[in-house]
């Protein structure tokens, strides 16, 4: 599903290519005019397996080709890709044989683009390309059905490389389309690159005079679930004997991977001369139906009792191909009933909610999810925790940055007195020092006295750990007269050297802004810049969604008056040496006047904003997941390797009250995970469904699946808050929206 306002496309330039499903890895040195050189390797296709194309049809889409290009090309270097059908055993000269319509050609010039690998130098220049189609003069080209065969694609690199010559780019040839002659031999189509090597990105097949369908009614199967019944698969002949020998239903290993299971049965439609079924079996995860075709009557075959084992590799629609014509699946690939049919909708795992009976207990559950209070797990290693009031949101959300610096989480308490559950949690986590944020109207002196008179224990607390012989210490309180003063004081508590820096040059010019709110358009300077977050101090949703980012990437979360930049915010940005600000929310949350004031300080501004709080949160999620590459359009949480792996998980909290997300930032200790907001406990709102759909689609969120495996696929939904915060129907709506992607 494509989101309105070009959601799925406008941010794709920031993606970084990673490992795809390779169909053949080779090292190639291409040659262009006058000895111009280019080093390429690692050919792969996406999606995999290779697409089916039919004999006698034009402009059929093939899988995209991707390869690695080293940053040391010569301007004008040319790669040639010559179409080679499967009968061209000696190379592409076998294409377009004399007197036949046995040919394959490019239907149109494809698109060629490149993205830089994670870690590339900021001084690298992304390669640009031009393309041309031509005819292979080595062929006699006297085949029938085409007057001018376009079987050579030339890809010319048009610019000069800069930066580190050992860096690499992932080059993708997309929008590849083939026209196939009516007598083309069935089998793979190769794009043979000069001077050597090939990757098959399509398979020529014969279209059977039959149709197939499945997933009606739609069945939702949880990712990773055991054998589950799904809807019937129906194969309908449109001409007699269109199906013969066998019907093979084979799972397609796209985003969602599965195998068939159980003991399905098949029935043939009744009638004079109808085909018959002699057996149905599961073989290597495929369904194989043995049939005796009718020579006179078109027959409908219904496969019932179908079950699947969902491997959990992905979410969204799961597909299978349906082939016929042989005694086994291996012999069926030449004749296709349907290139793909839906079998079921794969839903993400819905984890048990992280919650407690009240706000304080939910904060405790979130801390304990990140730092289990057991001797084996080790509790909070720093033996430190941050404490804020549960009566309001500004102090706790501002403190997500401080908690990240201290490698701990937040606990909450009523103002007047330390809650018994928070006191017990402090002891259970082996805490010896509590950072209090907020003044006496937020955390009273009585509460502080209760903390300092609480005996400290080692990890596990009373009954498990041992008493340290001392009471718990308090640092602070850190506070000012208003929420803006307190936010300022929290921001400058960690050392200035702690502030995170990042290059986000590709994230400007409203890449993540669906409102009329302004931003800088481009950064004031190049390279990694010290970065802070600015959000409204008058309302909580935007700061809530940003709290995980503040914690993980160590960007101070500074609150401001919505209408005029608060002097405290201005002072904090100056004191921290901030050069880049991520503004959360549209002009009603952080006004254009606010942004103009920040820009006037010589600070670059990226605005991330939506039509409501849920829209802002999902725009932020896209920004967080999008990878760095050489266009630097996001934080790179969607990387599939290293410490930034997001685990294909989204956190979800109610968007109409602050309680459950106040302390949720600590879950970034497990993995940097976007925090989405619902409209309220009973509705996911208008904007969230399209984002969730994209998380279950073949391309994934912002097309991330196309370049880095399943990195744009939502596989786990982690709710924050109990059933009064997110009711059962809302949770079902969340996972169903992913499943129907």
Write the SSE topology.
Elements: E1 27-31, E2 37-46, E3 51-54, E4 60-61, E5 64-70, E6 78-85, E7 104-106, E8 111-116, E9 129-134, E10 152-157, E11 168-174, E12 177-180, E13 187-193, E14 198-207, E15 210-213, E16 220-222, E17 228-229, E18 233-237, E19 245-251, E20 258-261, E21 265-268, E22 276-283, E23 286-292, E24 300-304, E25 307-310, E26 316-324, E27 335-347, E28 349-350, H1 359-370, E29 384-389, H2 394-398, H3 400-406, E30 410-413, H4 420-428, E31 433-437, H5 445-452, E32 455-457, E33 467-471, E34 473-478, H6 483-491, E35 501-502, E36 529-536, H7 541-553, E37 557-560, H8 567-575, E38 580-584, H9 592-600, E39 604-608, H10 613-625, E40 649-654, E41 675-678, H11 688-694, E42 716-719, H12 728-739
Parallel strand pairs: 3-14, 14-27, 16-27, 28-42, 29-30, 29-31, 31-34, 36-37, 36-38, 38-39, 40-41, 40-42
Antiparallel strand pairs: 1-2, 2-5, 4-12, 5-11, 6-10, 6-13, 7-12, 8-11, 9-10, 13-14, 15-18, 17-25, 18-24, 19-23, 19-26, 20-25, 21-24, 22-23, 26-27, 32-33, 35-36
Report a brief summary of the structure:
The protein is an alpha/beta fold.
How would you characterize this protein structure?
The protein is an alpha/beta fold and 741 residues long. Among the domains are: 12-203, no CATH class; 208-347, Immunoglobulin-like (Sandwich); 494-610, no CATH class. The chain is built from twelve helices and 42 strands. The strands form nine sheets. Strands 3, 6, 9, 10, 13, 14, 16, 19, 22, 23, 26 and 27 form a twelve-stranded mixed β-sheet that branches. Strands 1-2-5-11-8 form a five-stranded antiparallel β-sheet, with no helix packed on it. Strand 36, helix 7 and strand 37 (557-560) form a beta-alpha-beta unit. Helix 3 packs parallel to helix 7 and helix 6 runs parallel beside helix 8 (567-575). The radius of gyration is 30 Å and the shape is globular. 56% of the residues are buried.
